[in-house]
Amino acid sequence: MKKILIPVILAAMIFSCSKSTPSTTYEEGLKPVYISKANAFNLKVETPTTFTYPGKMFLYQSLILVTDVGEGVHILDNSNPVNPKKIAFISIPGVNDASIKNGILYADNFTDLVAFDISNMSNIQFIKRLKNIYPLINQLYPEFATGYFECADTTKGYILRWEKSTLTNPKCYR
Amino acid sequence: MKTINKIFISAVIIVVMGFVASCSKSDGTIGTDNPKNSPDGKSGSTARIIIKGDYLYAVDNSSLKVVDISTPSNPSYVRSVEIGFGIETIYTFGDYLFIGSNLGIYIYGLSDPSNPNQLSQFEHFTACDPVIASDTLAFVTLRNNNVCNQWIVASREIDVLNVKDIFHPYQLVNYIPQFDPYGLDRLNNYLFVCHGTDGVVVYDINKMIAGYGNAVISTITGITAFDAVIWQNKLFVIGESGFYQYDYSDIHNISLISSILKNQ
Asked: Judged by CB atoms within 8 Å, which residues 65-84 of B form the interface with A?
């Protein structure tokens, strides 16, 4: 019995000794970009600006909508296709997509659907918000992605997007 | 510490519907109608919000939201319709909604536009009889560039479906493109497919269906392309760097009209 026990104990000791102290690891993964809950539903009509994350397009008569994912919607005048011109930017946090009917622009704003009257481009007006028709998505982990990610901290607000990043000691993985 | 490895297929499914005016002719030409989802405007194939008549339809990850916009300035929420897992895109043609998900396509009818009802579904990776006889086609692009589950073979394909019988869609052909496909649009016999960092490729639909000959008609390279829309006789493309519009009147030599890039 002892003959068996001793090597087992020795092996156990060696195994435990070989365990190194935890070191810092770096992994390529995704990091959440937050917006505060107070600012998440703040809409603003602004002057034209540059594209940041161009994602979706909607064509309407001679207008082009370019959705800047998570940021807002650019409105472009394409009446001269050789020289399309940006005419306005509507800041809509969390936006994924936009569409137009009869001069009214609709877009998603996290959980809500919002509507703007764009029939007069020099005076774009917010007209209505339909609250809580969407569930919040992408808030706990990055959708349609696998690998390491920085764990979401819901106290920091809503997540606008997930960005590629080098993560230090990431604890979340899917 | 290694945590749970979860099987997750990151397929992006995009549905584009095409309708053909007349029954397929003996020479295999496939009609002229251009898909269009509202008289004044058009969404890309990767849309999550579309407008059809007096209703706006929006998808989230698992359901379809119906919003009444008969008075456009006063939209009102009607209902939510549960669809399934991994919903990504919505497209409309005729009295139908085509909803793309990770697992397949759901086709909904709009006989009551305030309450779409499921008519049928088509699951990906299902083998179907390759019959070439249809007057109604749907096109699906699929990509699965999963890196963490090595037992899932990365795959890419463009499926052409026969949806003439809307209750029983089936696969006509599963075309394997050279690059991962993303958003797409169609004009007559031309299928414009975005291929991410590999630009845009125009395919000959008849040749794709026939399964012989080189189906690639022309390519646009040097741009990253996620979605393409044909509108007012021009090709609009959006990608990581910005938006582009092209003249395709010479389909073999598609030329850039203008672009607006990120830094402009």
From this structure: 65, 67, 69, 72-77, 80
**What kind and span of H or E run contains A18?**
helix A2-18
pLDDT digits (tens, 9 = 90+) for B150-164: 344 557 888 898 888
Sheet holding A63-68, edge to edge: A44-46, A85-91, A72-77, A63-68, A54-60, B41-43
Dist CA A64 CA B41 (whole Å) = 9
- Residues B229-264: pLDDT tens digits? 999 999 999 999 999 999 999 999 999 999 999 988
CA atoms within 13 A on the CB side of B19: 13
Query: What length does chain B have?
Result: 264
Nearest to A82 among B4, B40, B257 (CB): B257
Which single residue is written with the structure tokens 């998440």?
Answer: A40
Which burial class, exposed, middle or buried, applies to B1 when counting CB atoms under 10 A from its CB (0-12, 13-18, 19+)? exposed
| Cβ(A84)–Cβ(A98) below 8 Å | no
Sheet hosting strand B200-204, strand order edge to edge: B184-187, B190-194, B200-204, B216-220
- CA torsion angle B144 A147 A111 A101 (round to 10): -30
Calpha distance B258→B236 (Å, rounded): 10
Is-contact A43 A126, C-beta < 8 A?
yes
Q: Min CA distance, B166 vs chain A (Å)? A: 27
Question: Cβ–Cβ of A147/B47 closer than 8 Å?
Answer: no
Q: Which residue in the set B8, B75, B242 is minimally distant from A113, CB to CB? A: B75
* Helix residue ranges per DSSP H, B73-226: 205-210
Q: Are strands A26-35 and A148-149 parallel, antiparallel or unpaired?
A: parallel
Burial class (CB in 10 A: 0-12, 13-18, 19+), A24: exposed
Q: What percent of chain B has a predicted confidence (pLDDT) above 70? A: 77
Q: Residues 27 to 56 of B: which have CB under 8 A from any A CB?
A: 38, 40-44, 46-51, 56
What is the structure's pLDDT at B213?
A: 86
Q: What is the domain partition of chain A in residue ranges? A: 26-173
How far out from the chain centre does Cα B42 lie? Answer: 13
Cα(A33)–Cα(A152) distance, rounded to whole angstroms?
10
